[in-house]
Prior knowledge:
A hairpin with a 4-residue loop joins strand 9 (114-118) and strand 10. This protein has 472 residues and is of the alpha+beta class. Helix 6 (298-306) crosses helix 7 (308-318) and helix 13 runs antiparallel to helix 14 (439-450). It is built from 15 helices and 17 strands. The radius of gyration is 30 Å and the shape is elongated. Strands 1, 2, 6, 7, 8, 11, 12, 13, 14 and 15 form a ten-stranded mixed beta sheet that branches. The chain has a three-stranded antiparallel beta sheet with strand order 5-4-16, with no helix packed on it. The model has no long low-confidence stretch (mean pLDDT 91). It starts with a strand and ends with a helix.
Amino acid sequence: MEIHAELKTRTKMFCNSKNDPEESRPNVNICPVCLAHPGTLPVINKQAVQHVLRVGAALGGKLADYTEFDRKNYFYPDLPKGYQISQYEFPLVSGGILAGVSITRIHLEEDTASSMHDEGSNETLIDFNRAGVPLMELVTEPVIGSAEQAGSFARELQLLLRYLGASDANMEKGEMRVEANISVSSDETLGTKVEVKNLNSFRAMERAVEYEIRRQTGLLEKGEKVIQETRGWDEGKQTTFAQRIKEGSADYRYFPDPDLPSLRLSDLKGFSRDEISKGLPELPSERRGRYITLGIKAEDADLYVRDMCFGDFFDRVVAAFSGDAKRVQLASNYIANDLVNLVAKRRDDQNRDTETLAEIAISEENFRKIIACIADGKISSRGAKDLLAAVYAGAGEPEKLAKEQNLLLSNVDMTPIVEKVLADNPKVVGEYKKGKIASIQFLVGQSMKALKGSGDPVALRKLIEESLSASE
């Protein structure tokens, strides 16, 4: 796999033009350097180099001491210089591993301009806002064995880039671009490689890999050869299509860029391995492992890693539980299920971006109070859901609402309620007595409804079972 990610920097890779992925006006963030005017000289963006080194350190790769930039020569309308400044022989990072996939290298280069075809005029227009934006390229070893593994790796890399603050890596905005190189072979040797581009989502990448495996397998089974080429992905037809014959490295005529100095990173303050590693945050894999050790479900842990807002909220809530495993797990259950649903509904109601969350509309303190009520047996699980929804909607404080809405478990005699529910539902009672044990859940639910959620469902179930046994 080859993955490109636009890096989050204030300015572009080799000039002081603004790096702004949100700019919608064409050809605004440009200057003579990124437009390749004669006589201009590039200057290396320090922050972009640090971003790549931080990614390399997080992956356990070897950080270069000596590095240099090269010219990768090819002609295309979106490449103003006629070459791209990239790295070839001396990348910033070599090796590393992520999600069980070995990394070959990570290097730094500049992005190209954007080409847009106008169907009305049948012209191709060029927007140079993106030209010169710092671009990280990561290349893996050929060790990925399935589309599913490829998707898992790419998603984990996106998470890592976001945790490090290196890139927002939004695929739909082109901030992260995935290219898959697929080969099929009947033995241990590698087959002929086909590169697939135009993959703008993880699912599209997975489908393209699956399709290409089928296509190449079919060719080989018929005794035909696979051609080394670059292919695109047609989302509508769910097929790949030929674009061009794949170039080799010799076709690009790499040579060191004479306008840029080579770098001895150990001579630069803040660029040593120790300095880079000390500045790393808790990584996704580390955070996931920490949650698992707390005894919460794996899918909950994955949610908190993927959506840092929920993860941060969970961390703040359980920080006050002092290792109380029961309350930690209760908190996780109500965050990962009920709170997530409440947030999703509010996002939908407000037409907000489903991938970001400005705030969670309940304080950690109030959420802890609700969890305490459940753990102390003051409210039922049904009552807790209603109470959480009311507090999230801004109706008031948990304790006051629980009293006002009769959610506190009642100490009243529940026997008359149970007797009435059994008398009103003879068909269900008959089904239970014939062996349909699950019918008792309906009777518990009806009893809880009659008690307006203030009944203890465990005690109710026991009382119903005793009443049914006595009536046999």
